[in-house]
Write a structure and sequence with these properties.
about 190 residues; mainly alpha; Endonuclease III, domain 1; 11 helices
């Protein structure tokens, strides 16, 4: 069984992880803003526990204007200062600046009549190591573990849930992007 599924099964008292595992992890994100949210949360997890990020997710959503790509892309130095002063989020300048820069990149895709989802979908057949290269060439603060977890969490890579996980079938029914491949890449 996959370690995250196993953790959630063995720790029913871990409410936040269980809720995320059951309702978000591995499911397709419904919009560019939702994809952006997942990317920002994964970046903020670097060096910390996922539970820490989950506890702060609502505060992040509020602080980052609901993860509106257009709004975050327009953030100024005053917004960086505001975020660095917010005790309810992870106050790391590099991670905050990465969120803004990555929002600007996604927003620029919109200017070309595209979207983050289209950008991701066009790379769906790539193996994991090539995904990492694409992210590193396009976004900032996107190392291999961040990219892998982002892709798993949004359904672009198979493996978020084990076939014996109680939520595996429900994830399949949500038609995550990896199921659209004839031969899914792990």
């Amino acid at each position: 069984m996959n370690p995250y599924c196993q953790h959630c099964l063995e720790h029913p008292e871990d409410f936040l992880n269980n809720l995320y595992h059951a309702n978000e992890y591995g499911y397709p994100a419904p919009s560019d803003d939702a994809l952006f949210e997942r990317l920002v949360l994964e970046i903020n997890q670097a060096g910390l526990s996922w539970n820490t990020v989950l506890k702060k997710a609502a505060a992040f959503r509020e602080a980052f204007d609901g993860f509106s790509v257009a709004k975050v892309a327009a953030y100024s130095e005053a917004d960086i200062d505001r975020l660095l002063a917010n005790p309810n989020i992870i106050r790391n300048r590099k991670k905050i600046e990465a969120a803004i820069r990555n929002a600007q990149v996604i927003h620029s895709l919109h200017g070309f009549g595209s979207s983050f989802k289209v950008w991701l979908d066009s790379r769906l057949c790539l193996p994991a190591d090539e995904w990492v290269s694409e992210f590193k060439n396009t976004f900032v603060f996107t190392g291999s573990e961040i990219v892998k977890e982002f892709l798993l969490s949004t359904g672009y890579l198979e493996g978020a849930h084990s076939p014996d996980c109680v939520f595996y079938q429900r994830v399949l029914e949500s038609s995550p992007p990896w199921t659209h491949l004839k031969h899914p890449i792990k």
